[in-house]
Amino acid sequence: MYRLFILASISLIVFFSSAEVYAQEPRLATFQETAQMIIDQSISNNVTAAISLQSTSNQEIRITPELTKKIQETERVRAVIITSEEQCVLGVQDESCIMISMSVEGIEGGIKAIQDTGRLIGDSLINDINDEFDTDAKFHSVFLHQRDESNRALGTSGVISGQGTVSAVYTMPREDSQTMYEKFSTILLPLEIRESGGFYELARKLSAEQDARMTLSIIPQNGTSLFQLKLSVDYPNTATGIKNISPLEFFKTNELKRSDYFSKDFYPLNSLLKVILLSPEPLRVSDVNTKIVPDVIKDGERLPEFTTDGWFFDQESGEKIEATYLFGKKFSVSKDDLVFTVSPLDGTNGNEINTSSNTVKIDSFQIVILVGIVMAAVGASIYYMKGFRAKH
């Protein structure tokens, strides 16, 4: 259900009597803050912690309409990525990259034709990108993405780096991630968002970590674009043996606070914490330190009542454990409250999850249903509610 590139469609179904209407109607802002943690015990043995700030509004992530339009109108382009990744593709070392990723579908003539097309499309955009972000990236290579293991394991689409994708790669002198994050967040984020704290402030602190890396993504989609600024930290060779999952340990904080940008109304889906555990053997969630969000079944899908705070387990057993923490009406959660435990799924233990708090029962007139996850940005999730007023 998790997607590395997600555009989520969300429907709201509420049954109520005239005396039982919500005091605050849930709303959805175009700006989204997401904390993501991946514990990969199957492939890399790494733990990755990431903070994503994303929006479809260029008032909240300030990229000019001219550049946005040109990217949207350039055939084949799937994404533009600027990253401080140490090795963005094979052959690049200790340089920052601008990658213009595109589909190879329909290009005839083999590798040479793919390389020529990639270079032509990349060159048509790179000067505008350099002007936009005050960079001076030079052409390095055209890279054909062929490995797809991570996309398959995570259930992601591979829009940026999966099979069938080629990237025109441009490089520039590498700056440390802290410097790049400070520079790009100042350029991209309005003062109101930067002064509102929340996940942005946590990302600023994490950017000082040795293995931190920054990524800016522009993803065109059906006449609009998704803009995402992401800060991620890798913890190599730390995933094996993790059974007690404490997400904030890897975010180096004792409390996860939402942005004050959402304090003027009720935005239950604009701040999310997502955890994925990939295991070579089947596991199950056995203990949870806080509430489990109540769910309903709709068209065969388990969906959360997202006005309630607590964990919702998209997948609570198997070789992939997937969980989303929903804040509900809360604006912070402690490190200890977020801890949950996994145990081997050996067929002799039950499926019951032990919780330190009672699971809240859901009333039939307050059913709020989260539906479809289809597309999003690099490693991240963004949600939309049909029919809801947006914050601008």
Secondary-structure map:
Blueprint: E1 8-10, E2 28-29, E3 32-40, E4 47-55, H1 65-73, E5 77-83, E6 95-103, H2 110-133, E7 138-145, H3 149-154, E8 165-173, H4 177-188, H5 191-194, H6 199-206, E9 212-221, E10 224-235, E11 244-245, H7 247-250, E12 255-257, E13 271-288, E14 295-298, E15 301-304, E16 310-315, E17 317-326, E18 332-334, E19 340-344, E20 354-355, E21 383-385, E22 390-391
Parallel strand pairs: 1-21, 2-22, 3-13, 13-20
Antiparallel strand pairs: 3-4, 4-10, 5-6, 5-9, 6-8, 7-8, 9-10, 11-19, 12-18, 13-17, 13-19, 14-15, 16-17
Note poorly predicted spans.
1-23, 150-158, 357-392
Euclidean distance between termini CA atoms? 29 Å
Form type: globular
Total strands: the figure is 22
Q: What structural class should be given to the helix and strand makeup?
A: alpha+beta
- The chain-level mean pLDDT equals 82
Percent in helix: 10-25%
Number of helices: 7
Q: What radius of gyration results from the CA coordinates?
A: 21 Å
Q: How many structural domains in the coordinates?
A: 2
Oligomer: single chain
* N-to-C order of helices and strands: EEEEHEEHEHEHHHEEEHEEEEEEEEEEE
Main sheet, how many strands, which sense, barrel?
Answer: 14 strands, mixed
Strand content: 35-45%
Record keyword descriptors for this entry.
alpha+beta, 2 domains, 14-stranded mixed β-sheet
